[in-house]
Protein backbone atom coordinates (compact mmCIF):
# COMPACT_ATOMS: atom_id res chain seq x y z
CA UNK A 1 0.00 0.00 0.00
CA UNK A 2 1.08 3.53 -0.61
CA UNK A 3 0.24 5.67 2.43
CA UNK A 4 2.80 8.44 1.81
CA UNK A 5 1.75 11.67 3.48
CA UNK A 6 -1.53 10.24 4.74
CA UNK A 7 -2.86 11.65 8.02
CA UNK A 8 -3.28 9.63 11.23
CA UNK A 9 -6.66 9.44 12.93
CA UNK A 10 -7.05 11.19 16.28
CA UNK A 11 -9.98 8.97 17.28
CA UNK A 12 -7.57 6.60 18.96
CA UNK A 13 -7.21 5.72 22.59
CA UNK A 14 -3.89 4.14 23.42
CA UNK A 15 -4.13 1.76 26.36
CA UNK A 16 -1.03 -0.23 25.54
CA UNK A 17 1.06 -0.96 28.55
CA UNK A 18 -1.87 -0.47 30.91
CA UNK A 19 -2.96 -3.47 32.90
CA UNK A 20 -6.15 -5.12 31.67
CA UNK A 21 -9.33 -3.35 32.58
CA UNK A 22 -7.65 -0.16 33.78
CA UNK A 23 -10.17 1.83 31.82
CA UNK A 24 -13.21 0.55 33.67
CA UNK A 25 -16.37 2.40 34.54
CA UNK A 26 -18.49 1.74 31.49
CA UNK A 27 -21.20 -0.84 31.47
CA UNK A 28 -23.85 0.27 33.91
CA UNK A 29 -25.71 2.40 31.42
CA UNK A 30 -25.74 -0.04 28.60
CA UNK A 31 -28.19 -2.56 29.99
CA UNK A 32 -31.25 -2.96 27.86
CA UNK A 33 -29.71 -1.91 24.58
CA UNK A 34 -28.34 -4.39 22.15
CA UNK A 35 -24.66 -4.88 22.70
CA UNK A 36 -22.87 -6.45 19.86
CA UNK A 37 -19.41 -7.76 20.13
CA UNK A 38 -18.17 -9.05 16.86
CA UNK A 39 -14.74 -10.49 16.69
CA UNK A 40 -12.83 -11.25 13.57
CA UNK A 41 -12.17 -14.83 14.55
CA UNK A 42 -14.44 -15.59 17.42
CA UNK A 43 -18.17 -15.97 17.20
CA UNK A 44 -20.90 -18.20 18.41
CA UNK A 45 -19.00 -19.14 21.52
CA UNK A 46 -16.74 -21.88 20.24
CA UNK A 47 -13.45 -20.49 21.40
CA UNK A 48 -11.46 -23.66 21.67
CA UNK A 49 -10.57 -24.50 18.11
CA UNK A 50 -9.92 -20.92 17.11
CA UNK A 51 -7.80 -20.14 20.14
CA UNK A 52 -5.83 -23.30 19.50
CA UNK A 53 -5.56 -22.30 15.92
CA UNK A 54 -4.18 -18.87 16.67
CA UNK A 55 -1.88 -20.19 19.36
CA UNK A 56 -0.36 -17.78 21.79
CA UNK A 57 -0.79 -14.10 21.32
CA UNK A 58 1.47 -11.41 22.56
CA UNK A 59 4.63 -11.73 20.50
CA UNK A 60 5.07 -7.99 20.48
CA UNK A 61 3.88 -7.43 24.01
CA UNK A 62 6.73 -9.49 25.34
CA UNK A 63 9.18 -7.19 23.65
CA UNK A 64 7.90 -4.14 25.52
CA UNK A 65 10.51 -2.46 27.64
CA UNK A 66 9.84 -0.23 30.61
CA UNK A 67 12.11 2.80 30.90
CA UNK A 68 13.38 4.45 34.09
CA UNK A 69 10.24 6.60 34.36
CA UNK A 70 8.16 3.46 34.37
CA UNK A 71 6.70 4.13 30.92
CA UNK A 72 6.41 1.36 28.40
CA UNK A 73 8.70 1.74 25.43
CA UNK A 74 7.49 0.15 22.27
CA UNK A 75 9.61 -1.50 19.63
CA UNK A 76 10.07 0.31 16.34
CA UNK A 77 8.02 -2.43 14.69
CA UNK A 78 5.10 -1.92 17.03
CA UNK A 79 5.24 1.87 16.63
CA UNK A 80 5.20 1.41 12.88
CA UNK A 81 2.10 -0.79 13.16
CA UNK A 82 0.42 1.77 15.43
CA UNK A 83 1.06 4.55 12.92
CA UNK A 84 -0.16 2.34 10.08
CA UNK A 85 -3.37 1.48 11.95
CA UNK A 86 -4.07 5.16 12.65
CA UNK A 87 -3.55 5.99 8.98
CA UNK A 88 -5.90 3.22 7.86
CA UNK A 89 -8.52 4.37 10.37
CA UNK A 90 -8.18 7.95 9.06
CA UNK A 91 -8.73 6.59 5.54
CA UNK A 92 -11.94 4.87 6.66
CA UNK A 93 -13.14 8.15 8.22
CA UNK A 94 -12.47 10.12 5.03
CA UNK A 95 -13.96 7.50 2.76
CA UNK A 96 -17.00 6.46 4.80
CA UNK A 97 -18.16 10.02 5.55
CA UNK A 98 -18.13 10.65 1.80
CA UNK A 99 -19.89 7.35 0.95
CA UNK A 100 -22.62 8.01 3.52
CA UNK A 101 -23.26 11.41 1.98
CA UNK A 102 -23.17 10.25 -1.63
CA UNK A 103 -25.19 7.07 -1.15
CA UNK A 104 -27.83 8.68 1.09
CA UNK A 105 -27.00 6.71 4.22
CA UNK A 106 -27.28 9.61 6.67
CA UNK A 107 -24.44 11.02 8.68
CA UNK A 108 -21.32 9.01 9.32
CA UNK A 109 -20.12 9.09 12.90
CA UNK A 110 -16.48 8.11 13.38
CA UNK A 111 -15.81 5.07 15.56
CA UNK A 112 -13.02 5.01 18.11
CA UNK A 113 -10.06 2.69 17.92
CA UNK A 114 -8.62 1.38 21.17
CA UNK A 115 -5.08 0.01 21.06
CA UNK A 116 -4.41 -2.29 23.98
CA UNK A 117 -2.17 -5.10 25.03
CA UNK A 118 -3.38 -8.36 26.53
CA UNK A 119 -6.78 -7.49 27.96
CA UNK A 120 -8.99 -4.45 28.41
CA UNK A 121 -12.52 -3.61 29.48
CA UNK A 122 -15.15 -2.61 26.96
CA UNK A 123 -18.86 -1.83 27.05
CA UNK A 124 -19.28 -5.40 25.78
CA UNK A 125 -17.32 -6.98 28.62
CA UNK A 126 -13.68 -7.91 28.97
CA UNK A 127 -11.74 -7.86 25.71
CA UNK A 128 -8.92 -10.35 25.29
CA UNK A 129 -6.17 -10.29 22.70
CA UNK A 130 -6.79 -13.98 22.00
CA UNK A 131 -10.20 -13.06 20.58
CA UNK A 132 -8.55 -11.16 17.75
CA UNK A 133 -9.63 -7.66 16.75
CA UNK A 134 -13.27 -6.93 17.49
CA UNK A 135 -15.92 -4.23 17.36
CA UNK A 136 -18.20 -3.34 20.25
CA UNK A 137 -21.35 -1.41 19.35
CA UNK A 138 -21.96 -0.56 23.02
CA UNK A 139 -19.14 2.00 22.83
CA UNK A 140 -18.80 2.17 19.03
CA UNK A 141 -15.18 1.19 19.26
CA UNK A 142 -12.87 -1.24 17.58
CA UNK A 143 -10.33 -2.95 19.78
CA UNK A 144 -6.95 -3.93 18.48
CA UNK A 145 -3.96 -5.61 20.07
CA UNK A 146 -1.20 -5.00 17.54
CA UNK A 147 0.43 -8.33 18.33
CA UNK A 148 -2.45 -9.84 16.36
CA UNK A 149 -0.75 -8.79 13.15
CA UNK A 150 2.34 -10.74 14.17
CA UNK A 151 0.19 -13.81 14.83
CA UNK A 152 -1.43 -13.44 11.42
CA UNK A 153 1.99 -13.48 9.87
CA UNK A 154 3.64 -16.17 11.99
CA UNK A 155 0.77 -18.57 12.49
CA UNK A 156 -1.53 -18.11 9.54
CA UNK A 157 1.01 -16.98 6.98
CA UNK A 158 -1.36 -14.09 6.18
CA UNK A 159 0.90 -11.13 5.74
CA UNK A 160 1.25 -7.76 4.08
CA UNK A 161 0.04 -4.27 4.86
CA UNK A 162 -3.08 -4.60 2.74
CA UNK A 163 -4.06 -7.77 4.62
CA UNK A 164 -3.71 -5.80 7.88
CA UNK A 165 -5.74 -2.94 6.42
CA UNK A 166 -8.45 -5.44 5.48
CA UNK A 167 -8.65 -6.57 9.13
CA UNK A 168 -9.14 -2.99 10.36
CA UNK A 169 -11.57 -2.17 7.55
CA UNK A 170 -13.57 -5.32 8.39
CA UNK A 171 -14.06 -4.07 11.97
CA UNK A 172 -15.02 -0.63 10.67
CA UNK A 173 -17.46 -2.53 8.44
CA UNK A 174 -19.24 -3.70 11.60
CA UNK A 175 -19.47 -0.06 12.67
CA UNK A 176 -21.09 0.79 9.33
CA UNK A 177 -23.51 -2.09 9.95
CA UNK A 178 -24.30 -0.55 13.31
CA UNK A 179 -24.87 2.94 11.90
CA UNK A 180 -27.17 1.57 9.19
CA UNK A 181 -29.10 -0.59 11.67
CA UNK A 182 -28.15 -3.90 10.05
CA UNK A 183 -26.20 -5.13 13.04
CA UNK A 184 -29.06 -4.52 15.46
CA UNK A 185 -31.56 -6.27 13.16
CA UNK A 186 -29.46 -9.38 12.81
CA UNK A 187 -28.45 -9.49 16.45
CA UNK A 188 -32.06 -9.42 17.59
CA UNK A 189 -32.78 -12.27 15.17
CA UNK A 190 -29.85 -14.18 16.61
CA UNK A 191 -31.10 -13.60 20.13
CA UNK A 192 -34.49 -15.06 19.15
CA UNK A 193 -32.87 -18.15 17.65
CA UNK A 194 -30.63 -18.59 20.67
CA UNK A 195 -26.92 -17.93 20.79
CA UNK A 196 -24.89 -20.72 19.26
CA UNK A 197 -27.83 -22.36 17.48
CA UNK A 198 -27.36 -23.35 13.84
CA UNK A 199 -29.78 -20.62 12.71
CA UNK A 200 -28.07 -17.94 14.79
CA UNK A 201 -24.73 -19.01 13.32
CA UNK A 202 -26.14 -18.57 9.81
CA UNK A 203 -27.24 -15.05 10.71
CA UNK A 204 -23.78 -14.35 12.07
CA UNK A 205 -22.31 -15.36 8.70
CA UNK A 206 -24.44 -12.61 7.08
CA UNK A 207 -22.94 -9.96 9.34
CA UNK A 208 -19.41 -11.18 8.74
CA UNK A 209 -19.64 -11.50 4.97
CA UNK A 210 -21.17 -8.05 4.81
CA UNK A 211 -18.26 -6.67 6.88
CA UNK A 212 -15.89 -8.26 4.34
CA UNK A 213 -17.87 -6.66 1.51
CA UNK A 214 -17.79 -3.26 3.24
CA UNK A 215 -14.03 -3.60 3.75
CA UNK A 216 -13.84 -4.10 -0.01
CA UNK A 217 -15.98 -0.98 -0.61
CA UNK A 218 -13.63 1.02 1.59
CA UNK A 219 -10.59 -0.18 -0.38
CA UNK A 220 -12.36 0.70 -3.64
CA UNK A 221 -12.90 4.32 -2.62
CA UNK A 222 -9.65 4.71 -0.69
CA UNK A 223 -7.79 3.73 -3.84
CA UNK A 224 -9.95 5.96 -6.02
CA UNK A 225 -9.29 8.96 -3.81
CA UNK A 226 -5.72 8.39 -2.64
CA UNK A 227 -4.23 5.86 -5.06
CA UNK A 228 -3.35 3.63 -2.13
CA UNK A 229 -3.65 0.17 -3.68
CA UNK A 230 -0.50 -1.16 -5.32
CA UNK A 231 0.28 -4.25 -7.38
CA UNK A 232 -0.08 -7.39 -5.30
CA UNK A 233 -2.19 -5.73 -2.60
CA UNK A 234 -5.49 -7.24 -3.67
CA UNK A 235 -3.88 -10.68 -3.63
CA UNK A 236 -2.74 -10.11 -0.03
CA UNK A 237 -6.30 -9.46 1.10
CA UNK A 238 -7.61 -12.41 -0.89
CA UNK A 239 -4.99 -14.73 0.61
CA UNK A 240 -5.93 -13.44 4.04
CA UNK A 241 -9.65 -14.03 3.40
CA UNK A 242 -8.82 -17.58 2.32
CA UNK A 243 -6.94 -18.26 5.54
CA UNK A 244 -9.61 -16.95 7.88
CA UNK A 245 -12.53 -18.86 6.40
CA UNK A 246 -14.28 -21.08 8.95
CA UNK A 247 -13.74 -24.21 6.85
CA UNK A 248 -10.02 -23.52 6.50
CA UNK A 249 -9.51 -22.75 10.19
CA UNK A 250 -11.50 -25.75 11.36
CA UNK A 251 -9.77 -28.15 9.01
CA UNK A 252 -6.42 -26.86 10.18
CA UNK A 253 -7.37 -27.15 13.83
CA UNK A 254 -9.28 -30.43 13.90
CA UNK A 255 -8.96 -32.01 10.48
CA UNK A 256 -12.59 -31.53 9.44
CA UNK A 257 -15.14 -28.75 9.12
CA UNK A 258 -18.62 -28.50 10.67
CA UNK A 259 -20.67 -26.14 8.47
CA UNK A 260 -23.46 -25.71 11.05
CA UNK A 261 -20.93 -24.16 13.40
CA UNK A 262 -19.63 -21.62 10.87
CA UNK A 263 -20.06 -18.04 12.09
CA UNK A 264 -17.91 -16.09 9.64
CA UNK A 265 -18.30 -17.89 6.31
CA UNK A 266 -16.10 -20.15 4.24
CA UNK A 267 -12.86 -19.05 2.63
CA UNK A 268 -14.57 -18.89 -0.76
CA UNK A 269 -17.43 -16.79 0.59
CA UNK A 270 -15.16 -14.36 2.40
CA UNK A 271 -12.98 -13.92 -0.66
CA UNK A 272 -15.97 -13.46 -2.94
CA UNK A 273 -17.67 -10.86 -0.75
CA UNK A 274 -14.52 -8.82 -0.24
CA UNK A 275 -13.86 -8.84 -3.98
CA UNK A 276 -17.44 -7.91 -4.84
CA UNK A 277 -17.23 -4.89 -2.54
CA UNK A 278 -13.87 -3.90 -3.94
CA UNK A 279 -15.03 -4.13 -7.53
CA UNK A 280 -18.38 -2.36 -7.18
CA UNK A 281 -18.14 -0.02 -4.19
CA UNK A 282 -21.93 -0.32 -4.07
CA UNK A 283 -22.79 -0.29 -0.37
CA UNK A 284 -26.56 -0.63 -0.71
CA UNK A 285 -26.25 -3.62 -2.98
CA UNK A 286 -24.06 -5.35 -0.40
CA UNK A 287 -26.47 -4.61 2.43
CA UNK A 288 -29.47 -5.79 0.41
CA UNK A 289 -27.73 -9.00 -0.63
CA UNK A 290 -26.58 -9.80 2.88
CA UNK A 291 -30.05 -9.20 4.31
CA UNK A 292 -32.19 -10.77 1.60
CA UNK A 293 -30.35 -13.72 0.09
CA UNK A 294 -31.10 -17.19 1.36
CA UNK A 295 -28.28 -18.58 3.39
CA UNK A 296 -27.44 -21.03 0.60
CA UNK A 297 -27.04 -18.15 -1.86
CA UNK A 298 -24.65 -16.13 0.27
ZN1 LIG B 1 -16.32 -9.60 11.99
Q: In short, what is this structure?
A:
With 298 residues, this protein is α/β, with parallel strands linked by helices. Helices cover 50% and strands 10% of the residues.
List keywords for this structure.
298 residues, alpha/beta, 5-stranded mixed β-sheet, two-stranded antiparallel ribbon, 9 strands, binds zinc ion
Count of DSSP-assigned helices: 10
Helix fraction bin: 40-55%
Sheet with most strands: strand arrangement:
1-5-9-8-2
Order of helices and strands: EEHEEHEEEEEHHHHHHHH
**Compounds present?**
zinc ion
Percentage of residues in DSSP E strands: 5-15%
The rounded distance between the terminal residues' Cα atoms is 29 Å
Radius of gyration: 18 Å
Mean pLDDT: 85
Poorly predicted sequence stretches spanning 5 or more consecutive residues: 21-34, 41-62
Shape, please?
Answer: globular
Number of strands: 9
- Domains, number: 1
Q: Name the structural class.
A: alpha/beta
Largest sheet: 5 strands, mixed
Task: Provide an overview of this structure.
This protein has 298 residues and is of the alpha/beta class. Helix content is 50%, strand content 10%. The chain is built from ten helices and nine strands. The strands form three sheets. The protein has a five-stranded mixed β-sheet with strand order 1-5-9-8-2, with helices on one face. The model is unreliable at 21-34 and 41-62 (pLDDT under 50). The structure holds zinc ion.
Layout: helices, strands, pairs:
Layout: E1 12-14, E2 37-39, H1 47-54, E3 65-66, E4 72-73, H2 76-102, E5 112-115, E6 119-122, E7 125-128, E8 134-136, E9 141-144, H3 147-156, H4 161-179, H5 182-193, H6 198-226, H7 233-243, H8 246-254, H9 267-280, H10 283-292
Parallel strand pairs: 1-5, 5-9
Antiparallel strand pairs: 2-8, 3-4, 6-7, 8-9
Helix pairs in contact: 1-8, 2-4, 2-6, 4-6, 4-7, 5-6, 6-9, 6-10, 7-9
The chain binds zinc ion.
Amino acid sequence: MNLDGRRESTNVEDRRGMSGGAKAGIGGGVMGIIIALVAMFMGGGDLGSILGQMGQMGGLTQEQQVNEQGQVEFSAEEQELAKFSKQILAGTEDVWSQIFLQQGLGEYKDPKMVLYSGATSTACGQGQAAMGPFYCSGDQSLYLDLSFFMSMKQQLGADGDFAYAYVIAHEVGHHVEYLTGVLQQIHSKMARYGQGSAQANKESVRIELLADYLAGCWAHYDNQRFGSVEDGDLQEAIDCALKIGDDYLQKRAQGYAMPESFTHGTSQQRMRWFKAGYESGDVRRGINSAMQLDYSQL
